[in-house]
Structures are given as structure tokens and as C-alpha cells.
Amino acid sequence: MNLEILGILVLWTFLFGYVIVASVDFGAGFFNAYSVYTGKKHILTNIIQRYLSPVWEVTNVFLVFFFVGVVGFFPKTAFYYGTILLVPASISILLLAIRGSYYAFETYGSKGHKGYAFMYGLSGLFIPASLSIVLTISEGGFVSIVDGNPVLDYWTLFSSPLTWSIFVLSLTAVLYISAVFLTWYAHKAKDKKATELMRKYALLWAFPTIVTAGGIIVELRFHNPEHYGRILDLWWMFALSFLMFIGTVYLIWNRKYYGRAFGLLAGQFALAFYAYGFSHYPYLLYPHLTIYDGFTNKAMAISLVAAFIAGLCLLIPSLYLLLRLFLFDKKYVEGKSDYHP
Amino acid sequence: MVNEEALFFSRILTELTLSFHIIYATIGVGVPLMIMIAQWVGIKKNDEHYILLARRWTRGFVITVAVGVVTGTAIGLQLSLLWPNFMELAGNVIALPLFMETFAFFFEAIFLGIYLYTWDRFENQKKHLLLLIPVAVGASFSAIFITMVNAFMNAPQGFELVDGQLVNINPIVAMFNPAMPTKVAHVVVTAYMTAAFVLASIAAFRLLRGSNHIYHKKALSLTMKLGLIFSIAAAVIGDFSGKYLAEYQPEKLAAAEWHFDTEGKAPLILYGKLEDGEVKYAIKLPFALSVLAHSDPTAEVLGLDKFPEDEIPPLYIHYLFDTMVTIGVWMVVLSFVFWVGLKRRWRIIHTKWFRWLVVLGGPLSILAIEAGWWMAEVGRQPWVLRGLMKTADGATSSNQVDLMLVLFAGLYVILAIGTIVILSRMFRKNPVERELEDRAVEKGGDPR
Q1: Does residue B425 belong to the interface with chain A, where contact is any CB pair within 8 Å?
Q2: How far apart are CA A180 and CA A20, in angstroms?
Q3: I need a labelling partner for A333 at 20 to 30 A (CA). Which of A158, A264, B281, B292 fits?
Q4: What is the DSSP string of B290-334?
């Protein structure tokens, strides 16, 4: 395996990590706001806060890691994506900033402010949407080169059905992933009411998620036939992913093995995510930038990989400790051990 | 082709974001160390007050971390958004420390979360101390790595430029560039110093505002002592930085010192005003610049006359230099008087006006940080990579930068107000007296 592939695999894995952790986070914010709005706050808020509080900062680092890593391994992305993404990425930063700071202000400052909860929930839904624009742009067709500089055509972007399908997928997937996770978490906390409510949401969002995901593949057939062809070559990965989806829904429907249901969900998204990534190969920005012409020099690539391995040796035990103390600590999950910020 | 308007707004927006971010970043680097020290002192002296000090600081710290994280994410992305050409070039050589910084940050984030939510889980306080070490280490290392990137921009090395192509790249050599030791040391130590004085100013303020609790007195003397140590260290390293500049970046030193003509026995100019190229009302310390630059009162110091006109930084950086140095020296004096006063039992350090001076010390230290960064950054104009790439060639070609500037300015106003409101509410609602009582009741012992 060459270094280019290794680099993109590392980054793709971190992006996948971010997608899962952040989806739980964003969706939880939305469900929390929704529960405040519909008078069901007492059911959900405790569960959500107890899970989110220790990990909110970690979630953000996954994203930082990804974009710093991309520029490190593929410096040319700074030129292409940096130039065209000024407006969309700035909006994402603004939303992330509002969300991150409001969360801290709300949790540690004034508890139970309705406006905060609302802002928090809403911004969480817009962030995945604004970030997913990058995925759309990477499919090509929205960027032209003028005077040697890339320029983004906003009109084509916003009038493309592909844009809106990816937008809808980002919303539904966030709510679905989050609902499945929180069902499991609430069940572990022996909170029957919260479990039932989250189970309902999980089943509600499962169908729209799978429909939009399938729809995007069809749209790619018209938008980027080359990519579509490569997706068809990997049909078995998508098929496996779909089977896992069925498994998750089956388990949740029958109210059993919520942990395994979440495991299947993670598998489903991992397969689809990697299959999508592989089929995108070798382009970072179709057709202008491939992972080969955007790659950094050999010396930097080797030192980045070395730093990455050293970093992982530090990170994995720490993350394990974090999970053990909060996610897998029975007393903490059930709210019997200390939880007072 | 340079897009003049985009260049102008990109510079303003970067300056705005960084100026706002470093307030939180400096606190974020310095305060964890103070928290760790307080926890450690508390364990050593078996004194509940210091443990509580660590916890109350942490609670305020979380708010500043949150804003630091979001503004840090902003500047991280803005680097590529506003300076795509620069990042494309520099990314080839300097991505390594940037990458390592995220690891340090990751490490800190994980353990801060753990420390915050395991308040009373472990009987043994030493375990809580163990959790604080990675937080402080992670915070300091993110400062170290990110300052390496900045040092590289001042003294690029670790590659060869052949026909406009970068070859023979060595990331390690790029990281350990000549600007690195003084820059990193100065940044880290001044962050510790600022954090100590900011916390001292809170303690002094509480003492002034009626609470005469022994807790605040302990906080004040601990932070002032730490502040003294770090401010002396900052001054010493500042002197090394001057020597570094004389050797590697003489145009920055010359501009900061208004040293126009190359000469030996160079005087140091303090304060003053520049009018039509004439320096007025300045205090001249004979030989001092030669000493600062080369540790030799007769040594020759390069003046601005040796540089092409379009490579000279703006001369207003002199005022920034003066601001930084004056505040630095003033804080050394103030904390030294406090320390001697504590030993000799002088009454003066308990007077109202002295405490007001201490209160002022926190904001002043932050101002010195800002002034120092502005001087360092403006002082390397017109270069973004000194001697390699001009700032104008690194900027984006996008036309919407002005709009982004407005958006982000609005965001920072909201964040600033939010921080102030939440922090003051948090501590006013829950004074230390009440918290001590609550804790005593929780433990079932007597209220102290």
C-alpha cells in the first residue's frame, strides 16, 4: 500500500469517527430541544446531558484532526477547497462556535434556559447540512478554474438535486444514528420512558435515512457516471450495509439487544462510508484534484504517519479510559455516581 | 494576481480572530498549570482550601476553554480559507507540528472531561491530581507545537528552493528552526505569567469587595508568587528574543527600536513619538540596544538603512514593543514588592490601593500579550514566510471576505459578552463561603 492511500485511509477513518460521534451529539441536541418544546423535557434531558457533558469537547477534536490532517497530507486541498469553501466553511464555523459556546454557557452557567436549548438543537441540525456541502462539491461540476484560481458556482450548486439529497441525508442520518444510540444509552440507564421515546424516534427516522441514501446513488448516475460505475463495482458492500440496517431495525422493533443494534448501525454506516470513499478514488475534487497530484512530499508523509502512530498510542488508552469512566460505568450511567458540573 | 480587497480584509479578519483567540488561548495554556499546582499544594498541606481553589478555577476555566476551542477551530480553518496559497506551500514543510498540536489538544480534552465529571468519585485526592497532569501537559504542548509553526514563518528552513519547487524537505529541521527556542519559551512562560496574574486579580478583587476570607488570601499569595517567578523568566527570555532578532531578523528589531542608522554603541529608545521621521520626547538609554542585541555595549547593530524600503515593517510596532516591555517590568516590580511585603509583614500590601494595582495586573498582562503578538506579527511584514513569500501572494482570491469579517466580528462580540455574563454570574451566585459550607454538609462534618 502506498502512502497516499494510507494517508487518505487515516483521514477517512477520522472523518467516520466524527460522523458517528457528532451525529449522536447533534441529534441529541435536537431531541433535547424538541423535548423541551413538547413538554417531555423531564424524560430526556437527564440522559442526554449525562452522556454529552464529558465528551462534547472530544467530538470537536475529531473534526479539527480531519481538516488539519487533510492539509498536512494533501497540501493542494488548501488551495482548491480553501479558496472555494470560504463562505460555506465560515458558516459551519459560526454554527459550531454558537453551538459549542452555548453548550458550555448553558451547562455550567444558567441551567434550563429555553432559548439556549432551542439554539443548541437547531444549530446542530444545520452543521451537518453545511458540512455536507463539501461532499457535494467533491463530486465535481460546481467548480471552474478562472485565471488559475478555482471559483465555486453557487447557482449550479443550489439548484442541483444532488445537493439537496445529500442535505436531506445528513439530517435524517443524524437523527437516526442519535436515536439508536440514545435508545441504547437510556436502556443502560434503566430509564424505561426515555428508552421507549428514543426507540420510537429511531424507528421513525430509519426509513427516510435508507430511502435518501439509496436515492443519492441513483442521482450520481446522472451527475457523475464515472463515480456511479465505481459504486456499482462495490455493490456487495452496499448490500451488506443494507442487511445490517435491516438487522438494526429488527432488533429495535423487538426491543432487544440495543447494544448490538447500535453495533450493527455502526457497521452499516462504516460499510457505506468506506464503500463511498473507495468509489470516489482517486479524486479529492473531481476532476481537478486526485490524491496523487495533491500529495505532500515523502519526508513529510513519513513523519506524519509516524506522528500519527505515536499519537494513537496516546489517544487509544485515553479514549478507553474516558469510555470506561462514563459510557461503561454502571453507576455513572444510572446517575448514581457524581454528576455535578 | 493579487486581489487587493480580499488581501486587506483577510489580514483584518485573521488579526481579529487571533487577537480574540489568544486571550482564551493564553488562559487555556496557563490556568491548567495553576490548577494543578493548587491541587498539589492542597494535598501537600492537607488544606481543603487549595483543593477548592483548584475546583473553582476549573469551573471558570471550562467556559474559557469552550470559547478557546471554538475560536481555535475558527483560526485553524481560516488559515486555509483566507491564505490558501500560503497553506499549500507551507503545508509541505510545516504540517507536522500542526498535526501534533491536534494530538496534544485531543489529549487535554479527554482528561479535562474526565477531571470535570469525576469531582468526588475517588477518595484519594492524588488520583485527581494525576488527571490534572495530562490536562496541563496537553495545554502547554499545544502552545509549543503551534508556536513552532509560527516560528517557522519567521525563520523558514528545512527545505531547498530550486526553480520555485520545494525539495529536500526535512520536517524536523523545519520544526527546530532558529526562532523556535525563544519564541516557544516566551509564549509558554508569558502564558503562565498572565494566568497567574489574572487569577491574582480575581482574588484581590474578592478581598476588596468585602469578603475577607482566608481562602482569597491564600489564593492571592500563591498566584502572586507564581506570577513573580514567571514574570522574571519572561523578562530573561525576552532578552534572549532580542538577541535572536538581532542575529536573524534585524529589520524587526530595528523597526521596533526606531534604529535608523547602522552603528555601534547603539542606544535603546524608550517611548517617544515619531514625527516626520524625527524621534521626539524619547528616553535614550546609551549602549542598551547594543547590550540587548549582542551583550556588548560597543557592538554594531544593523539599522533600517541596510534594508530595501519595501521590506521594512511598519514603524508603529515601537509603541507595541514599549507597551509589552513596560507592563512586563511593572508586573515584576509589583509582584516582587508583594513577595517582600509578605515576608517582612509590610502593611502596604494589604492596603486598598495596592490591591487595586493587583486587580489591574490581570488585564494589563493580557494587554501585554496582545501587544507582544501584534509586534511579532506586524514586525515580519511584508512577509508571510520571511524572505520567501510575501503576505500579498498568500491570500485568497475570493470576493466575499468582507462579509465574513462582519459575520465573525458579530460572533466574537456575542462570545465576549457571553463569557463575561456567565463567568460573573457563576461566581457571584456561589461565593466561596457558601461552597465551603455546602461541601462540609455533604461530607457530614462541621461547617468551617
Answers
A1: yes
A2: 11
A3: A264
A4: HHHHHS-TT--B--GGGS-GGGPPPTTHHHHHHHHHHHHHHHHHH
Concatenated DSSP letters of B148-198: HHHHHHHS--SSEEETTEEES--HHHHHT-TTHHHHHHHHHHHHHHHHHHH
- Check if B122 contacts A (Cβ < 8 Å): no
Question: What are the pLDDT tens digits along chain B (448 aa)?
Answer: 567 788 888 899 999 999 999 999 999 999 999 999 999 999 999 888 898 888 889 888 888 988 998 899 899 889 888 888 888 888 888 888 988 888 888 888 888 888 887 777 777 788 888 889 999 999 999 999 999 999 998 888 888 888 777 788 888 988 899 999 999 999 999 999 999 999 999 999 988 887 777 888 899 999 999 999 999 999 999 988 888 888 888 888 888 888 888 887 888 888 888 777 777 787 887 777 787 778 888 888 888 888 888 888 888 899 999 999 999 999 999 999 999 988 888 888 788 889 999 999 999 999 999 999 999 999 888 887 777 787 888 787 777 888 889 999 999 999 999 888 888 888 777 777 777 777 777 665 444 3
Query: What is the SS3 assignment for A266?
Result: helix
A 10 A CB-CB count for B243 gives: 16
* Closest CA of chain A from B384, distance in Å: 16
How far does the CA of residue B39 sit from the closest CA of chain A (Å)?
A: 18
Place of cell 509560527: B150
CA distance A135 to chain B (A): 17
- Kindly write down the DSSP assignment for every residue of B65-108, as one continuous string: HHHHHHHHHHHHHHHHHH-HHHHHHHHHHHHHHHHHHHHHHHHH
pTM over 0.80: yes
Choose among A64, A77, A100: nearest Cβ to B105: A64
Let me know if A122 is exposed, middle or buried by CB neighbors in 10 A (0-12, 13-18, 19+): middle
- A181 vs chain B: nearest CA distance in angstroms? 20
Give the C-alpha separation, A105 to B65, whole Å: 11
Chain B environment of A49 (Cβ under 8 Å): none
Q: Tell whether the torsion through CA atoms of B341, B345, B347 and B349 is positive or negative.
A: positive
Closest CA to B185 of B252, B245, B237: B237
DSSP 8-class letter at B263: B
Contact A300 B95 (CB under 8 A): yes
Q: B 101-120 residues with CB below 8 A of A? A: 101-103, 105-107, 109-114, 116-120
- d(CA B221, nearest CA chain A) in Å: 27
Sequence-ordered list of residues with C-beta below 8 angstroms from that of A316, at least 6 positions apart, any chain: none
Q: What are the phi and psi torsion angles at B390 (to 5°)? A: -80, 150
Nearest to A300 among B169, B418, B425 (CB): B169
Contacts of B57 (CB under 8 A, 6+ apart): B31, B34, B35, B38, B199
Does ipTM surpass 0.90 in this model?
Answer: no
Q: How far is it, in rounded angstroms, from Cα A49 to Cα A107?
A: 8
In the block, which residue shows the cell 470560504? A86
Q: Which of B90, B114, B172 sits opposite A321 (nearest CB)?
A: B114
- Strand spans (E) along chain A: 143-146, 149-152, 283-285, 289-290
Contacts of B413 in chain A (CB under 8 A): none
Q: For residue A226, what are the contacts with CB-CB under 8 A and spacing of at least 6?
A: A286
Closest residue in B to A55 (Cα) is B113
Q: B51: helix, coil or strand?
A: helix
The residue of chain B nearest to residue A306, with distances taken between CA atoms, is B96
B137-166 as b/e, with b when 16 or more CB fall inside 10 Å?
bbbbbbbbbbbbbbbbbbbbebbeeeeeeb
**For residue A77, which residues of chain B lie inside 8 Å, CB to CB?**
80
CB-neighbour burial class of residue B279 (10 A; exposed 0-12, middle 13-18, buried 19+): middle
